[in-house]
Amino acid sequence: MFPKYKRLYFFTGKGGVGKTSFALALTKFLQKEGVNVAYFNFDQTQPKKLISLLKVPTINQTTEESAAIYIQNKLGSKTIANWILKTTFFKSLLNITPSIGYMISLGHIINRLEEDPSLTIVIDAPASGHTLSLFNSTHNFREMFKVGPLVEDIHKMHNFLEKSENIKVCILCLPNIMNVQEALELKKGLSSLKLFEGNLILNELLAGLNHNELEALPNFLREKISIEQNLKKQYEKDFTEVVPFLSSTDYADIVTSLINMMRTIA
Amino acid sequence: MIKQTILIKQLEIFCGTGGVGKTTLATSRALFLGSKGKKVLLITIDPAKRLKQILNIKDQNAGKVENISSNLFTGFEENNFSISALLMSPKETLRKILKADTIDNNVLNILTRPHGGMNEILSLIEVQFHIESGKYDTIILDTPPGKHFIDFLQSSRKISDFFDSSFVEIFKFLGKPIIYPKGPAQKPTKKLLGKLISTGIKKLLKYLDQVTGEKFVQDFIEAVSILYQNKAPFLEALELEKQLRTFEFCNWFLVTSVEQSKLQEAAEFQSHTETFHKSNFFFLINKSLENHIKEWDIPSKGSSLGKESREKLASLKESMISKEEKTIKFAKTQFSQFIIFPEIIDANPVKHVGDLSKTWKNN
């Protein structure tokens, strides 16, 4: 049977576009569909209150923990792995080259998916620039190491990421020109890595008002909407999905109402 | 809501969560200072480089200081001036550190690519170079979003750890001498051997050899030696970090926006900067629609609009008012100084920058 859902979802885009809301909503949606799913925040800045309020299943794994498990598997010893992590050398190395941390965390996620074929992970990814650094990290280190077991592991990671049945990368974007440009650049940047294509999702503001209601809006909002509609028209062919933006001061409300819209995105 | 006119400092740092308008506000500040006759350099660290879109800078010019004429913006017609702008390029920064046209080491070359992840770590050094050049009255720094700002704040400490003396001495012992201008590398002393055993670096490198191949370990050791020979700028950046905390030297602007309810994150940001001087710390509330909402009248009963529609609009208005109020209340309780910037309703980012610089004029 062809699997209904992907194994790995990424939500990225400029700051404030709704990465966390979408990632949480998709996790909840998949959970309701009976999928064994977990939310993972790549920058390890989880919205703890919201997660406990909505009972979102999560993976909590720091880069250091991922590194320890990886080294342990490579060298076959937990003691050595823990010792390596405690050395000044390794700590400084991890600190000064954040891209090593990116690669280790990504590798760990893929490992988990390979070990447990029933598992799906939804990733709340960093903002655009840092998501590019994240996906560039494996390419950069492959070029640096050239040969050896680490390069083989990078190939394994790429094999997983290359299969379109495994992964969906969603680039969220709000209807303003700074957002759209950043999203298009990110899509191009990801595409150049030749692993997968990103899907542009427009988070449309103030949707759901009928003609009469729009007419009754004050000038500043009509102007705002007209700017957004023009932009939407101009970039229509670039968006794979348009989702209405839900305005509320309650974060949990936003996520809950988004859950029902996740069927098309999943 | 500020206690006195904002004093112009040598360094002004814009930080905050993503998408709130850090780059736009930083650019508007640069233009405002430029219009007052100050020599300003605007630097963006975020690898997403949104600044290029506002200032029309090409990607391939990252790392080079560009001259931006005030003609690009509206509202500065009466006096013509220019500001300088720079998109951070880790490779260019490293070239300055090494005083070299090319970087011969494989590891350093790859890591300093545009998305190699080294932006934050090298940014203080870039700032240091421009402060020392003496060319600018003020340097404005547009920092990366979210947790990556914290990386920037901690970069000096991380660099200092990296140059931990025991760590570097050990490389000398491994027979990959750090080449000093005069004389050969020193032989390791007994004390050093003690250190070597306690840190176990040799064993660690042997493990590294097993998984990465010998060539990489050689390249890596060479990379560390190169950096160590050129460590002066790194250590100077540590001094700069101390200065960031002083009132005389630096202004901090924490940006948030009304449309995003990310006040919790703003509070977390503040907790990271708590050791800094309070009187040079400003909370900027961007994209306020307060003035617009005041003038918004929901059609009354008896108008052509049905009850359901009227309620829908009323609740929209209510939620917008509540966002404004929530943000202002947060500002009043958490920050001693805050400034409100209006949302500029225009498709063109350049127009936003010009209009926003008016708010600086009043503060």
Q: Describe it for me?
A:
The complex is a heterodimer of chains A (266) and B (363). By secondary structure, chain A is α/β, with parallel strands linked by helices. Chain A has a single domain (8-265), classed as Rossmann fold (3-Layer(aba) Sandwich). Chain A is built from 13 helices and 6 strands. Chain A has helices at residues 19-32, 48-54, 63-75, 78-86, 88-96, 98-115, 128-145, 149-162, 177-191, 211-215, 219-234, 251-259, 262-265, and strands at 8-13, 36-41, 119-124, 167-173, 198-204, 239-244. A 6-stranded parallel beta sheet of chain A has the order 2-3-1-4-5-6, with helices on both faces. In chain A, strand 4 (167-173), helix 9 and strand 5 form a beta-alpha-beta unit. In chain A, helix 5 packs across helix 6, helix 6 (98-115) crosses helix 7 (128-145) and helix 7 (128-145) packs parallel to helix 9. Chain A is elongated. Chain B is of the alpha/beta class and 363 residues long. Chain B folds into 2 domains: 11-159 and 235-361, P-loop containing nucleotide triphosphate hydrolases (Rossmann fold, 3-Layer(aba) Sandwich), CATH 3.40.50.300; 164-230, no CATH class. Chain B has helices spanning 22-35, 51-55, 90-98, 106-111, 119-133, 147-153, 155-162, 165-173, 190-199, 201-212, 214-229, 232-243, 263-272, 290-294, 307-334, 349-361, and strands spanning 11-16, 40-44, 66-69, 82-87, 138-142, 250-257, 281-288, 338-342. An 8-stranded mixed beta sheet of chain B has the order 3-4-2-5-1-6-7-8, sandwiched between helices. In chain B, helix 13 links the parallel strand 6 and strand 7. In chain B, helix 5 packs across helix 6 (147-153), helix 5 packs across helix 7 (155-162) and helix 10 (201-212) packs across helix 11 (214-229). Chain B is elongated, with a radius of gyration of 25 Å. Mean pLDDT of chain B is 85; it is low at 176-190.
